[in-house]
Amino acid sequence: MKKFFAIFEVYFISMLTSFSRRKLLRIPALTALLVVGGIVFYFLTRFAVFVFGVNLPAPLSTIDFGPIILNSIMLAMLIFLFLGSFTIILSTLYLSSDIKSLLSMPISERIIFSAKFTFANFEESLYPLFLVYPFFVGFGIKYHLGVLFYIASLFFSIFLPLIPFAIAALIVIPLAYRMSVKKLQTIALVLNMLFGVFIYLVTQIANPAFHIVNSNDIPSLLNKTQGILKLLPTNVAVSFSYAFKDGYSFRGFTEVLLFIGIGAVLFFIALVFAQKNYAAGLFRAERIESVKFISSSAEKQMLGGRFLSRHIGALISKDLKVLLRDPRIKTSVFMSLGYVGFFLFVFLIFPMKNPGKSSYEVTFMPILYFVIVDFMLCGQNALIMLLSDRESIWVPFMSGIQSNEFIWSKFLLPFISGEILNILLFVISIFLVKGSSAKLLFVTLPFAIFLPLLFTASAIFVGMMFPNFKTPPDPRKLVSGKAALLNGLLYFIYVVIAVAMGIFSSFLIKAAGISSAVIIMFFLVGVLSVAISFPLITVAIKKYKEMEISN
Amino acid sequence: MIETVNLTKSFGNLLAVSNLNIKVNSGEIYGFLGLNGAGKTTTIGMITGLLKPTSGTALIDGIDILKDPVNAKSRIGLIPDTPNVYKKLTGREFLYFVADIYDVDRKTAKEKMNDLFDMFSLKDKADELIESYSHGMRQKIVIAGALIHNPSILVLDEPTVGLDPKSAKLVKDLLRALAGKGKTIFMSTHILEIAERMCDKVGIVDEGKLIAEGTISELKEKAKDKTANLEDLFLELTGGEDTKDLIKFLEE
Global pTM? Predict the structure, then answer.
């Protein structure tokens, strides 16, 4: 047990240091995080109290929504944890950088596995603690339940990841023996994404715009759903909560203990299984990764000397190869493309099938769409591309290429792909809207043209402000936390600006007419984007020039 | 030619390199020796432009690395201590990439590449991803990358680490041959036998300061024991005598 706790302690300290390298800043950073978590917790609790007490109009008034809400939340969290656990187990148990050194120490595989597994559980239990537990608290407040309920539901929330993690481990360990671990990770991420799409589509079943379900049939549909949900393991949350509500505290507490007990048994089975197969699979997985053969076509693939300068061409060509061969980067790019497709339905195809007549209804959604999609395609991917050189950055840095060539080589690919996609989407939206409202869409064209410039430039600026070209200790973290945070912050600022611009454009159309509005928006969005983007790129070039590289 | 002028680097309160003045002429092999953490890699970083000096500068063929870094860097071939290269490129792709960013024309690059693959016995592995290479093979591909643009200066940080005896011998012969062709070679090494046999001039650095410099025979002249080899001299200068005593104690 001493070794187990020693490993656990190292991970815990690493988690704390990830908030801030400086010891003095660690406590304020942690406190800030807890405060944010507390605020989220409070609002979710208030929301839960409201939801459990809401009286819906007929015909929905006959349905008890309490069990459906609890069961749905549990189910969504359990699926989220289950799918997420694949990615986490693969990265912590197979791709983590400390695996080799741990295996070389006199520590049994069982202890390594259990320490890593327990810590991953501990980390993941924060999600149900902040996202699921408030619903129990809300339930408790609504029905004036005693302390025992809060304790039981707290245990239930904290131990919720145990079952999905144990099942995921039992699936992953034998699979990792046969398949590339990185490939498995890609599959897990794609499944996560598909789950997101599935949840969205499910929520659209009752949307009257799609005529899937008649509004009169909704009560019977919900009753059927309730019947199905009762059969699921997540129904234990409903069962123990209602036991407490009905005064059967002992029964409720026993159910929680049973749930945790099942998780513990599954964990134990996974542990026994891991003892025999974990290390063997680990070494085999490593071998599968390294035996790859790429056919010789290096000369043909180079872009240099055609329409770009040779240096920029060589850098882009290299980035493309790295991008297409690194499963982590590839997954991120494919995921953002997947989201682009997903949001195409959410923001364009569904709303545009039957848009309103007002300019606001026609133009607002495409503007929001361009902001979200360009952030994913240009903002996120430019950041990943910029830092994809990682520890090999010394190769271009040592060469005769200029700093502006390096930065522009990172800029071009996300920028051009954003431009192509936006123009394509603009044409699609024109096609979808048709008629006289279609010309209103031209007010969104400045966004389509200039947002890729703004987002790519911002991401490159952010990347160069926090240049992290070292191999990340955790393969999941391609981009440093600070860079990701700043990039996200900028994104929210741009969303707010874009929303304001969208509303403004609507007023402008009414006040000045469509032609003048388009010209003014072109001027506004264009001038703003160029005025922000080029200084950002100039700073990034300067930062690259001043950069220092050490091992 | 490499010349450092009062080259200094500090990291916060730590003075990693202090007022370093060395000159390596064309056709010379300069061995840069020192204990771990003595400042060898930091010096190499500053000479090659990877690190910015706190004060002083380095001249590469007379070009100031701080004033004209791109021109200065294009004359250097660097072989770092850890062969960190793009693992998702094949050996051939990596060399083409290096050739492109160093403006080597395609025909020359192709000819040179084939020679280098032959020389380092990498022909069969040329079209496999670098991630499948062993440490030694990665080291070889880095050396090939450093040579493909025919630099006038080669800077090597522990060049033979990870190489098999045959490849290590090849690198040593290659460096001698390149020095014979007038190239400037600056290398840091822990292997004193290599320094003793190969280097025209040796500099010993300790705690960021150059504490001895000269040819092997010049350094031996300075030693207390005139029959001492480079290892004895190195230990004498860097305080390694304590280590010798410790080893003797442990043997007893």
Answer: 0.67
